[in-house]
Design a protein that fits this description.
Low-confidence stretches of chain B: 94-102
Mean pLDDT of chain B: 85
Largest sheet of chain B: 2 strands, antiparallel
CATH topology of one domain in chain B: Alpha-Beta Plaits
Strand content of chain A: 5-15%
Mean pLDDT of chain A: 92
Order of helices and strands of chain B: EHEEHEH
Radius of gyration of chain B: 16 Å
Shape of chain B: elongated
Helix content of chain A: 40-55%
CATH class of the largest domain in chain A: Alpha Beta
CATH architecture of one domain in chain B: 2-Layer Sandwich
Strand order of the largest sheet of chain B: 1-4
Strand order of the largest sheet of chain A: 1-2-3-5-4-6-7
Largest interface: A-B, 57 and 52 residues
Oligomer: heterodimer
Number of strands of chain B: 4
Structural class of chain B: alpha+beta
Chain lengths: 358, 102
């Protein structure tokens, strides 16, 4: 292991090289280091994942020879790590495509994990001289980007679609390139949903900060300036309700996804957001004099925030489709705008009333 | 639970041209949602609501027997495309790197 693994030097997951008919190939380790785990973590919580890449090209796992399988992957380091850590005790080649650091599924949708790129890499690496067989294993979730029959025609290599999960690869290879029906299905377990939540939150905390400032200013606003005590005493319920809306839309909706009522995400988020507003009203606000103008705002604005965030989770799931989300968006966005407009009007009326103008 | 959660009813654009289908089973092999089955030597749709319009079947059908409007099931992308007027594109993976990806 190198003492100072820098980005442009040999990374610490490269543990040696093998000589081959097409030149020397880096051997990668199957073990993940603390550094790899830190990288995975940072990719899950921040924009770091945009820069988390490996160089495209050929790599070796174990001690592969001319009969070893060739596995195709993307150059997002998180995907690459998932693959190599699933391949302990396996001799194989890994062919990494240049997907601009995007994972296989998303890159396949964009076409960067695509037929052209695969053909170019096969030719560029002289794969036909490296192995005697004519088979390449492409992850099943790469299939939207790959035209297997075109790859065969252009390169002579037959595409075998591997399992959805890298963890099933050893079994798949043992089964002589046959994936069971279970290996072909995309799951979306609680753990798989939970790991996405930090990213959802990291995308909205700035908006929440802006919202908090706006709430404080609006509640503090008096005809002759801004009153700090009013800002806090009037505003903190709204700030807390905003947090609650984020919690129900971006945390509870993903967690409870399969058991929440309705198929539309916007409705799932709306229902759970409305339930949260109702509970907050019943247990916290009922005894306070929130007044006839702010109570409807509480039941409009926060369920809508929750609904909007839930709707945004559609993009993170593997079971929505564009036709459906378009339908949802077309119905939901006008409703959001109307609810927001009505909330603003009610809030203005509330302000005018507290100022004694109405 | 969570394995076959379905999305909205009757919205999917997936179609099979039975005359072109040769029963090669490629679509059955690659569909991540088990949408297809074989019946009478042809591929058939079991439950269209399962389809996520990923486009894998269409791309890999040698005989052009399958058509589906491929796209991202992502609200942010669709709202973005309504504002910009373009096609919905998945871009939350790289908001600060417009030049090198997307």
């Amino acid at each position: 292991m190198k003492s100072f693994p820098q980005d442009h030097r040999t990374p610490d997951w490269i543990v040696g090289t093998i000589k081959s008919p097409v030149g020397s190939i880096s051997i990668v380790s199957a073990g993940l280091t603390g550094r790899d785990r830190r990288g995975s973590f940072r990719s899950r919580v921040s924009g770091f994942r945009m820069r988390y890449r490996v160089d495209p090209g050929l790599y070796a796992m174990g001690n592969p020879d001319e009969n070893s399988p060739v596995l195709v992957s993307a150059n997002y380091k998180l995907s690459f790590d998932k693959l190599r850590s699933s391949l302990a005790d396996t001799n194989a080649y890994i062919l990494v495509l240049d997907t601009n650091g995007i994972n296989v599924w998303c890159a396949a949708g964009k076409g960067t994990f695509g037929t052209e790129e695969l053909i170019v890499r096969i030719k560029e690496t002289d794969l036909g001289k490296l192995v005697r067989h004519r088979r390449i294993v492409v992850p099943q979730l790469g299939a939207p980007g790959i035209r297997a029959h075109v790859v065969l025609k252009e390169t002579g290599f037959r595409v075998s679609y591997g399992p959805v999960y890298a963890g099933d690869l050893p079994q798949y290879l043992k089964n002589s390139f046959k994936a069971t029906e279970e290996m072909r299905k995309v799951r979306f377990t609680l753990a798989e949903r939970l790991v996405l939540i930090p990213m959802e939150i990291s995308q909205i905390w700035k908006a929440f900060l802006l919202y908090t400032c706006t709430v404080l200013v609006l509640f503090g606003l008096q005809p002759n300036g801004i009153l700090f005590s009013e800002a806090v005493s009037g505003g903190y319920h709204f700030i807390f309700l905003g947090l609650l809306g984020i919690f129900t839309g971006s945390v509870l909706t993903p967690v409870l996804l399969p058991i929440l009522p309705f198929r539309a995400f916007s409705l799932k988020g709306l229902v759970i957001g409305a339930a949260a507003s109702l509970l907050y009203y019943a247990f916290v606000l009922k005894e306070t004099n929130t007044g006839p103008f702010l109570v409807p705002v509480i039941f409009l604005l926060f369920p809508v925030i929750s609904s909007y965030l839930a709707l945004n989770f559609t993009g993170a799931t593997p079971f929505t489709n564009m036709s459906g989300v378009k339908k949802e968006v077309k119905a939901a966005v006008p409703f959001y705008i109307a609810a927001l407009g009505l909330s603003i009007i009610l809030f203005i009326v509330y302000k005018l009333q507290t100022w004694g103008i109405l | 639970m969570g394995n076959f959660v379905k999305y909205l009813k009757n919205v999917v654009t997936l179609e099979i041209d039975e005359d072109r289908c040769t029963g090669c089973r490629r679509c059955i092999e690659i569909c991540p949602r088990s949408v297809f089955i074989m019946a009478g030597g042809k591929c058939q749709i079991t439950d269209i609501d399962l389809c996520i319009e990923c486009g894998a079947c269409e791309a890999n059908c040698e005989f052009d027997a399958i058509s589906v409007k491929q796209g991202v099931g992502c609200a942010a992308a669709i709202i973005g495309s309504m504002i910009s007027g373009g096609e919905p594109e998945c871009s939350c993976c790289c908001p600060d790197e417009k030049t090198s990806c997307c």
